[in-house]
Amino acid sequence: MSRQLTPLALMAKAERACSSARALLDLGDVDGACNRAYYAMFDAARAVLLASGAAVRSDIGKTHGGLINAFSEHLIKNGPVSKEMGRLLKRAEEVRLVADYKGDSVELSDTQEMVKQAETFVATLKLEFEHSLNRKKPDHGYPA
Fold first, then answer.
1. 119-137: per-residue pLDDT in tens?
2. Which domains does the chain have, with CATH numbers?
């Protein structure tokens, strides 16, 4: 299956990953929760980046570093996304690498914080995503 995901599908995927992160946390799977929380943020960032009309390749999600750099360059550096959202994404990537590749599990308190941050990140970016879509709609002169 090699077709590209649309920004709308990516945002829905991000929301599902957030729900999965919360469920895994509730089950006590801290590493799995960190993984899903990071991917929720990753997919939300990719959705907003693609929806923004920024000059990026459609396969921007191919590398994690490439996506994070493009997100920072196009959406954080001069807005509309806050620098705090950029820091959350970068921190989530670091924690996910520990959760997925190191021998030790992530601390429960760190996982709880990361899941909350992912929920905040996805909700914030969803609002920006909706604004991006509204900016792209043609104005036909009809009342909203």
1. 999 999 998 778 766 665 5
2. 7-133 (1.20.120.330)
